[in-house]
Specification:
It is a single chain. The chain is mostly helical. The chain has one domain (8-131). It is built from five helices and no strands. Helix 1 (7-52) crosses helix 3 (75-87). The radius of gyration is 21 Å and the shape is elongated.
């Protein structure tokens, strides 16, 4: 059974709830930025490693299988990291509302102009990866 609230306590609870929600939203934006940064770094590191070992036939396939196993990651996520780096070798500044899951879908679009149009649409219309 809830204790009856005075108007002052109701106002305090409302203010605290609002602060909690703002904090959660900021935290989610930081998490998404770190996901993008991490997967860009993963892609960069893998590409550099492959370039250094390019003389070894079939090494790429072996590498992704081995990395997935030892890093306890999905091979597709490793490939997406590489694809992300290849699409944006100088990095990317994206809106904080663009989730890694959505960006992961968009980087499969090879044409930069088309991809940019979709990114703009996702940001302006606040679409999720499910909406694509």
């Amino acid at each position: 059974m809830l204790i009856p609230l005075t108007p002052e306590l109701e106002a305090l609870i409302s203010a605290l709830s609002s602060s909690l929600q703002v904090g959660k939203n900021r935290a989610l934006r930081v998490i998404e930025q770190e996901k993008r940064s991490t997967f860009w770094d993963i892609g960069s590191t893998i590409i550099q490693h492959i370039i250094e070992h390019k003389k070894r036939s079939g090494y790429g396939s072996y590498l992704f299988t081995t990395l997935a196993q030892y890093l306890h990651m999905n091979k597709a996520d490793l490939y997406r990291g590489v694809q992300f780096f290849e699409r944006y070798p100088d990095g990317i500044e994206t809106s904080p509302v663009l989730a890694w899951k959505t960006l992961k879908s968009l980087i499969t679009i090879p044409d930069l102009k088309t991809r940019s149009l979709y990114i703009d649409k996702v940001v302006s219309e606040k679409l999720s990866s499910k909406d694509l």
